[in-house]
Amino acid sequence: MPQIKNLTVLGTGVLGSQIAYQAAFHGFAVTAYDIDDAALEKAKGRFSQLAGIYVSQKVAGAADGKAEAALDNLRLSADLGDAVAEADLVIEAVPEMMELKRDIYRRLAELAPSTTIFATNSSTLLPSDLKESTGRPDRFLAIHYANNIWVQNIAEVMGTADTDPAVFDAVVEFARNSGMEPIEIAKEKAGYVLNSLLVPFLNAAAGLVLQGISSPDMIDKTWRIATGAPTGPFQIFDVVGLTTAYNISAASPDAGSQAFAAYLKDNYIDKGKLGVSTGEGFYKY
Amino acid sequence: MPQIKNLTVLGTGVLGSQIAYQAAFHGFAVTAYDIDDAALEKAKGRFSQLAGIYVSQKVAGAADGKAEAALDNLRLSADLGDAVAEADLVIEAVPEMMELKRDIYRRLAELAPSTTIFATNSSTLLPSDLKESTGRPDRFLAIHYANNIWVQNIAEVMGTADTDPAVFDAVVEFARNSGMEPIEIAKEKAGYVLNSLLVPFLNAAAGLVLQGISSPDMIDKTWRIATGAPTGPFQIFDVVGLTTAYNISAASPDAGSQAFAAYLKDNYIDKGKLGVSTGEGFYKY
Questions:
Q1: N or C: which end of chain A has fewer CB within 10 A?
Q2: How many domains are contained in chain B?
Q3: Residue B283: inside a domain, yes or no?
Q4: DSSP letters of chain A?
Q5: B56-70: per-residue pLDDT in tens?
Q6: Do A200 and B205 touch (CB under 8 A)?
Q7: Nearest to B181 among A186, A199, A225 (CB)
Q8: Which CATH number fits the domain that encloses residue B208?
Q9: Which of B185, B208, B229 finishes a domain?
Q10: Residues B13 and B140 in one domain
Q11: A161/B contact by beta carbon, under 8 A
């Protein structure tokens, strides 16, 4: 099984920076790549902020110096060749645009050592959509993280039919060693496990409101009391963000989804109510 | 708004006895009806058991005499006319057979005072399916309880187009006064709110296993970690009971549901693994 010690993360947005910091926190040597110095300057700020969050949210060991030490395990680079020269694993977390991703894999294929494993964090594309561009389909798969990685510490690991099982196992092992609970997915599936559960659940909740059956707060209360969950579906919508919910609904051909997209736009998005991030969505925060 | 003081519950099975005991615990004068003395003898045992559960699970006030006092608020009767003579509200919790229910409503229509409100606890039938037999569609609706009423204390209240709004409000008020969180449902909907959320959620989880995407324990772990819920979908299946899950799946014309029914039968039901109740289902207990 390949050994993973050096990690490179491509993209230092919200999730990319969390992936890099989490691995650095657990002792991996991490290089964070982004396109220019301005992006890397932002990334530095994100890493410092994460160090503070790990301490304030009492992640084990954070207050005993690990949160600070993680910053020493992080190196920044705006040169792709330099960033991946020593990488055992490259996790790609660049924006969700097929051509952008394919282009970066084509460049990676030439720049990275032939042994380097590539993994995409894409939520919406299947690894099969990208594998040809990597030039190494046997060393390519998906590893999918959720936001707030230090709490929602799942890493969904999903290969294609071409992925070498030893590579799959190595990435599962890496996930575990970087403080994640690996979720092993045996076959390619759009939405992985989490969104395959979440989407029909949230659609059902949306349908009840659209059809005038009940209200968001009644529906949430029902779910909380009956299942003991801390949050109901509309509270989850507010955390995910109503713009994301709108984009997913609007992109679906289903009539119910289209109606829900319109409902979100008219009642929330056009009024600046985007969820927890703006202080108001279905609820006020 | 009609005042509800005297409650009669028809049927003293698992849920019927919980509905009766919960209302008695909250000070209502409750008559529990069942078909013969043998059934009523069983009901007595259930009520004593519930008194013990309310104390051991620390329902507020239970240890201070309320659990015992509830037993004094409960009267048993195997004579339908006697059972409903003083009832402000009759909650019907007899087995889920359309003709059995219609027959009992036809008898009730003659025996109960004209002011008595009738409510069905049916999970699978709509109140519209039953309203004609009641002879009083304006004073008829559904009130739907979940098992383990003292913890999962929701009461889904759902009328038909004929239900008098004042009657609806009176039943909502009764639910609140008997320690329930009323869930007001504005339009008839099969599955009410809870099952309308639960069924697509559980179906999605079942699909992931049937398609070989992932395993029940991985799927449950994903849901627990990502949403903070105490249980994942297969833990919920085990609580609901795999026989119930089988019956619902087998009754659906959908091919995926049929496949899941067969999967449950071969791997669990035929091996006596019915869920929490038998000590083993998807998990061991």
A1: C
A2: 2
A3: no
A4: -----EEEEE--SHHHHHHHHHHHHTT-EEEEE-SSHHHHHHHHHHHHHHHHHHHHTT-TTGGGTHHHHHHHTEEEES-HHHHHTT-SEEEE---S-HHHHHHHHHHHHHHS-TT-EEEE--SSS-HHHHHHHHS-GGGEEEEEE-SSTTTS-EEEEEE-TTS-HHHHHHHHHHHHHTT-EEEEESS--TTTTHHHHHHHHHHHHHHHHHTTS--HHHHHHHHHHHH--S--HHHHHHHH-HHHHHHHHHH---HHHHHHHHHHHHHTGGGT--BGGGTBSSSB-
A5: 999 999 999 999 999
A6: no
A7: A225
A8: 1.10.1040.10
A9: B185
A10: yes
A11: no
Residue B285 falls inside a structural domain: no
Contact B189 A156 (CB under 8 A): no
Give domain status of residue A59, yes or no.
Answer: yes
Indicate whether B129 and B209 sit together in one domain. Answer: no
Q: Rounded to 5 degrees, what are φ and ψ at A47? A: -65, -45
Domain that holds residue B243: 196-278
Find the CB nearest B208 among A154, A193, A225: A193
B217 touches A: beta carbon within 8 Å: no
Which pLDDT score, from 0 to 100, does residue B231 have?
97
Instruction: Please check whether residue A57 touches B, CB under 8 A.
Output: no
Q: Are residues A121 and A232 in the same domain?
A: no
A203, B200: Cβ pair inside 8 Å? yes
Of B25, B39, B278, residue with least CA distance to B149: B25
Q: Are residues A36 and A154 in the same domain?
A: yes
User: Does residue B141 share a domain with residue B254?
Assistant: no
From first to last of its 285 residues, chain B has per-residue pLDDT tens of 899 999 999 999 999 999 999 999 999 999 999 999 999 999 999 999 999 999 999 999 999 999 999 999 999 999 999 999 999 999 999 998 999 999 999 999 999 999 999 999 999 899 999 999 999 999 999 999 999 999 999 999 999 999 999 999 999 999 999 999 999 999 999 999 999 999 999 999 999 999 999 999 999 999 999 999 999 999 999 999 999 899 888 988 889 999 999 999 999 999 999 999 999 999 999
- What CATH number does residue A66 fall under? 3.40.50.720
In chain A, % of residues over pLDDT 90: 94
Same structural domain for residues B172 and B216?
no
pLDDT digits (tens, 9 = 90+) for A35-56: 999 999 999 999 999 999 999 9
- Report pLDDT digits (tens) over A224-261: 999 999 999 999 999 989 998 998 889 888 899 999 99
pLDDT at residue A1, as a whole number: 86
Q: ipTM of the assembly?
A: 0.93
**Which of the listed residues B134, B166, B185 is the one where a domain comes to its end?**
B185
- Can you tell me the mean pLDDT for A70-81? 98
Residues A208 and A145 in one domain: no
- Do residues A137 and A23 both lie within one domain? yes
A92 touches chain B (CB under 8 A): no
